[in-house]
Write a structure and sequence with these properties.
The chain has helices at about 1-60, 70-80, 115-120, 145-195, 210-230, 235-240, 260-275, 280-285, 295-325, 325-345, 350-375, 385-415, 415-435, 455-460, 465-495, 500-530, 530-550, 555-570, 575-585, 590-620, 625-659, and strands at about 85-95, 100-105, 120-130, 135-140, 200-205, 250-255. The protein has 21 helices and six strands. The two termini are about 50 Å apart. The relative contact order is 0.08.
Length: about 650
Amino acid sequence: MKRISLSGSVVFIAVLVIVLGTAASAWISLGLIKDSLQPAQQEKAAIVAQSTDRLVLHLLDQGVPLERFGRMEDVLSSRLQGHADLEFLAIYEPKSDTLLYQAQAGGHERIVSQAWAEKQFALYRYPLMQNGQTLAEVWVGFDPGFMAQVFEEIGYDIATILVVTLLLAMELLMFITTYHIKTPMAGIHAMLDRVAEKDLREVVYFPGKDELSHLGNRVAAAIGSMTEGLKNVATGRRADLGYQLPDGSPKQVGLARLSFVRPPLFLVIFSESMSLSFFPAYVNALYEPIPGLSPSLVIGLPISVFMLVWALSLPVAGQWSDSVGRKKAFMVGAGLTAMGLFLTAWCDNLWQLLIVRSITAVGYGVVFITAQGYVTDNTTVENRTRGMAMFLSGFFSGSLCGAAIGGILSDRIGFEATFILSATLSLASAVFVMQFFEAKVVDPNAPPPAVLSFKDFTTLLTDKYFLLITFLSAIPAKLLLTGFLYYTGPVYLNQLGANQSSVGRILMAYGLAIVLISPLSAWLGDRLKNKTAFIIFGGGLSALALFAVYLIPGVYGMFTGVLLLGVAHAVGVSPQLSLLTEKVKLKNGLTLGKTIGIFRLTERIGNIAGPLVAATLISLLGFQSSFLWLSTGVATSLILLVVLYLMFRTMDQRQLQEA
C-alpha cells in the first residue's frame, strides 16, 4: 500500500502543478487574445478602406464624377464576400450628407444615416482624400457580435486543450511513476517475499537505469551470491535449512509490466480518433455518385468498410499476435495504422479512400487485439478485471483527446495535415513499443493456442442468453456508437453550421462521460452484483439520448444526446461481457476465451451496420425523424431484452425445481 500511495502522491502533485500552471497560462492567453481582437479588427477595416480608396481615386483620375460611378454597389458587395465578420461597406459624401453607395451582407434594409449605421454595426470611418481635401468617407461595418463569438470560440478551444493536457499529463506521469517507481519497488518486494519464504529459485531482472532498478539488480545479485553460498554447505545441512534452491543459477524473470501497454495504445487510439469530428466532411469532399446509393449512404460507406475490415481482422490478428509475440505484432499494427492514415491524406477519390481505410483498419485491429492479449498475458484471474478496466480507460482517453484535438487542428491546418500528424503519432507508438516491450520468449512446453471452429459458433449461436445479450444489447450499443456518434453527429453538426472545433468538443463529451463514469459504474456493479439492472438502465439512457436530440433540435440537443449516450455506455456496456460469461454454458469444447472472442466479433455487426442504417434513415426521413426512429428501435430492443430475460430466468428456475 505504501508503494501505491507514494506513486499516487507523485502523480497527484505533478498533475496539480501542471493543471494550475496550464490554467494560469490559459487565463493570461485569453486576456492577451481579448486585447488583440479589437486592434486586429481595426487593421482589417483600414485595409478594406484603403483598397476602396484606391479604386475611387482611380475612377476620379479617369474623370468620372463621384456621384456617377456605375455598378459601384455591386463592386462593394463583392468585397464583402468571403468575410464572415464584414457586413457593411459604403461611400459617404459629407457635402450632401448622403450615402452615395452602400452594400450589406444578406441584403438587409438600406442604411440612411450615420446613427443608424452605428447602431447596426461596429462602424469605422476613414476619410477619402484628393489633393489634400476630403471628398468622401469610406464606412466599414462589422458584425458587432462577431468578436464576442470569436473570443468565446477561442475560450472553448483553450478549455478543451486544458482538459486534453490534463489527460495527457496523467498518461505520461502514470507511465513514468510506474516505470521508475511502482514497478521496480514491486519487483524488489516480490524478491524479498520469496527470500522470506526461503525460495531462492527466481530473481527479477530490472532493465531500467534509475536508482531503484540498480537497487533491484543489486538485491538480485545478493540473492544469487546467497544461493551459491548455501550450495557450498553440506547436503544434509542444506536440507535442515529448508531453502528451495535452483539447480544452477537463479532463474531471471521479467518485471510485471501491465501498464506499459497503455501509452502506446493511447497514442494509436489518439491518432485514429483525430479524424472522428471531420471524417464525414472529408469523405464528402471526395464524394462520387454510386448508382443505387444515396449521397448519405455513400458518405457513411468508408466508416462501415473500416468497421467490417476491423472486425474480420480480429480473429486472424489475435492468433498471429499469439504466435509472433506482442512486441512485433504491436509494431506492425501501429506501422500499418500510420501508413493508412498517411495515405488517407493523399486520396483523390472515394475508391482510394476505401482501400487505404481498409489498411488502417487492419493495423487498428492488430493493435486492438494485441493490447488485449498483452493485458491477458500480464494478469491473472484475480486482477484481470482491473487490467481490462485499464485497457478501456486508455482506449477512451485516447478517443476523447483525439476527437477534441483533431477538430481544432483540422480548422487551423486542414484535413490533410491533420492526417499526416496522426500518422506520425502512430509511428511514435511503434517506437515506444520497440523501446519498452520485450520480445516473445518461446516456451516449447506451452500448449498450442485454442483455434476457433465452426462448432464453437454454432454452440454459442444456439445459446439463448448469448443471443439475447448480443443482439438486443451489445449490437444496438455498437450501432449507436458508429451510426449516431461517428457518422450522424459530425454530418448533422456540419449542416447546422458548426465548425470542426465545435464538432470535436461535442464528441468529446462522450469520451469524457466514459472516462469519468466507468470507474464509478464498475465499483457500483461489483457492490450491487446486479449486472442486468445496469444493462437495462444503460439501454434506457441510450434511447433517451436519441430522443433528446429529437426533442431539442440543434447544437444543444446534439450535445445533450452525446453526453447521455456516453453515460449510457459507461453504465451499460461493461456489464454485458460479465453477464454473458455468467449465463452462457461452456460445452462442446467451448472455452471462456472462445466465448469472449466470438462475442467481440459478433457485436461488430453493430459497428458495421451503424453508418449504413443511419444514412438510410437520413436519406429517407431526414435528421429529426431519424433520431426518433433510432430512439424507438433502441427502446424496442430494450423491452424485448427485459421480457425475454425474465422469461428465460423463469424457465431456468422451473427446470431447477423439476430436477
